[in-house]
Prior knowledge:
Low-confidence stretches: 354-361
Domain KIB1-4 beta-propeller: 90-365
Pfam family, one: Beta-prop_KIB1-4
Number of strands: 27
Distance between the termini: 34 Å
Protein name: Putative F-box protein
Shape: globular
Helix content: under 10%
Organism: Prunus yedoensis var. nudiflora
Largest sheet: 5 strands, mixed
Radius of gyration: 22 Å
Number of helices: 4
InterPro entries: F-box_BR-signaling, KIB1-4_b-propeller
Mean pLDDT: 77
Amino acid sequence: MAMAMACTIERKTTPPNRNRWAGELLPELFELILKKLASNVLDIIRFKAVCSSWNCAAARSYTSAPLPQYPWLMPSIPKSPPIDHESRCFFSLAENKVYKMDWNWKKTFHGDGASCLGSSHGWLAIKEVNTEKKTYKEYEEIVHLFNPISRERLLAPKMTRTKKVVLSSDPSHNNNFVVVVIHSRFFEGTGLAFYQHGRGGDNAAAWTNLSHGSSCADMVFHNGHLFTLSIIHTIQVWDFRGTYDNNNYPMKIMNFRPSIDGNVNSMAVDEWLVESMGELLLVGQERLGNDTRGAVKFFVYKLNIAAKTFEQVESLRDCALFLARNQSAMSFSLSTKELPGLKENSIYFTDLDHVLKLNESCGDNFHEGRVYNLETKAVETYYPTRAPVSNPYWNSPPVWIVPSPWY
Length: 407
């Protein structure tokens, strides 16, 4: 595997007269150029930076047909960070390069108290914890929705013990999006709550509870509906195709526990609910060894709503799945036909390698990016780590994001 190169993404302005010719190109030429650059967000950013005409052309292109993008991986914070550690880095899978962003993580999110919950529609969900209150039960959290490309930031109402955040749509192009969170409730399992952007204030009253004590493990929006998965594989579905507030709840239209076609190892390390090409998949990871970084095996099942069953999937065909290290972050599927640099019938994931040091009671943690072929069961490394990371359970695990340059 080739070593990833490190680069810096900075914003630069060009004198207006220098690019006068650029604004005189025909719209058809703009479209042709954009189609050539479509799958690399960095090329789109460079295109938009040429002049205002090119920026407008890119915006029109998104409106007519949103273009697929290769994903980025935001690695964990190093255990012994370099001097410039206040900037976060992203690994471009398409270019095999690490890019350092020119915005300051610690100044933007008040430093060490912030962690990334995951991404949704190209936006990161960043959680800040206010520990001024005396008890854990009273801890207050601020969740920022942050676009790392445009640096636009939106604040969600205050919440406590947030575990996962999903958005119904891209905030860059729909101000009426819905935010749903899984949050833990003291001695009550987990709860689900939502708010519609723009209708609520900055306090907990802006949230509307959907359920509590449900032991919700994962959730995903699919065709305007919210699907949730419990730890015992119960599926619940809410219809979000409307406008809602504290007095107008989305309707729960399904609540069932599908039977499973085949044997599922109940000791699976993690399970995910993933939307893939119009279908919902249950994906599980089993570890075939006692060490942290042992051999791995994945199983995939498709949800058949009509029959209320999970049916085993033998092949993902021309799809690649991207799974988060833990269930707090979003997982997703991409087409290898639209993005030919991806490996088909494969699962991209990040693995935790715990290495014990000699004469020490504890060791170092290394996150490694790996890809699993569902047919051959072979595993390859696409992002080797070179430095230990900070505590992976208290700080941000690696997070996948499909960047959104359309702002």
